[in-house]
Amino acid sequence: MSSLLRAWYVFLALGLATFVATAFIGRAPTTLSATIALPHQVAYRVGVNLREALAAMTDRRDLRTENAALRDALAAERESARELELQVARLQEVLAIRDAQSPGVVTTAPVVGGSTGELVDRLILGAGRDAPLELGMPVTVPEGLVGIITDVTGERGVVRTILDPESRVGVTVRGKGGQGVAIGDVASGVRIVRFIEGAPVELGDVVETSSYGGLFPRGVRVGTVIAIDPRDPNELRRSFLVEPAADLSTLLEVALITPP
C-alpha cells in the first residue's frame, strides 16, 4: 500500500471518530440528565405520598380522639341533666306532700331494698342518720302513708310499713269521722279494727290518719275501704279492710316527716 493510500485511511478514520464523538458528546448531557432525573422524581413522589398518608392518619386519629371526647362530654351532660330532673321531681314530691299531708317533710330517701312477696312489710332506705333520719319518723309518698322508721344506722334506715302485722296506725274516715286502728294483715293488706263509727262506713270511703296514738300527723291518706265485716249486734265497734293508697312494692323514693 502506498503512503498516499495509508494517509487517506488515517484521514477517514479521524473523520469518523470526530463524527461519532461529536454526535454522542453533544447529546450526552441531555441523556444523562434524563437518566438521573427519573429516579429522583420517583423518590420525590414517594416521599410526598408518604407525608400525605401520615398526615391523613394523624388527622383521622385526632378526629377519633375528638369524637371520643365529645361523646364523653355529651354523656356527662346527659347524666347531669338526668340528675337535675330527678332533683326537680324530688322537690315537687316534697312540695306536694307538704301541701296535702304535712308541712313537716324534712328529706327524701331512696328505697334500696325490702321484703319480697305480695305484701311488703319492710323497706330499706339508702340514707341514715346523716340524712338526717331518726326513729319514729313517719314515711310517706304523695299517694299516701308508707310506714314508720324503726331502725337507723349511719347509712341505712328500716321502715316498718303499714302492711306489717306489728304496725299500728290511728285512723279515721275522711268526711265521716270515727276512730279506729289500722293493723297490717298478711292475708289481705290493712285491716281496721276497733273502729267506732261517726257515720256508717261504706265501700270506697277514704281512710286517713288521725291523732290517735300520736305517731302520725293527721290527714295522711292510708287507703280505700274495699270490704266491710258483718256487724255483730252486740258489738259497737266495726272492722273492715282497706286497700293501701300507695303500692309499696314499686316505691323508688320516699319522703320523711318530722315525728309529731
Describe the structure.
About 2% of the residues have low confidence. This protein is an alpha+beta fold and 260 residues long. It contains one helix and twelve strands, in the order H-E-E-E-E-E-E-E-E-E-E-E-E. A hairpin with a 3-residue loop joins strand 7 and strand 8. The chain has two domains: 100 residues; 155 residues, Rod shape-determining protein MreC, domain 2 (Thrombin, subunit H). It is rod-shaped and about 170 Å long.
The overall pLDDT, averaged over residues, is 80
Sketch the major β-sheet: 6 strands, antiparallel, barrel
Given as residue ranges, the uncertain stretches (5+ residues, pLDDT < 50) are: 23-28
Question: What CATH first level of the largest domain would be assigned?
Answer: Mainly Beta
Q: What is the fold-level CATH name, i.e. the topology of the largest domain?
A: Thrombin, subunit H
Task: Count up the helices.
Answer: 1
Distance between the termini: 151 Å
Strand content: 25-35%
Helix content: 25-40%
Q: What pattern of helices and strands is seen along the backbone?
A: HEEEEEEEEEEEE
Briefly summarize what is shown.
This protein has 260 residues and is α+β, with helices and mostly antiparallel strands.
Provide keyphrases for this structure.
single chain, 260 residues, alpha+beta, Thrombin, subunit H, 2 domains, six-stranded antiparallel barrel, six-stranded antiparallel β-barrel, 1 helix, 12 strands
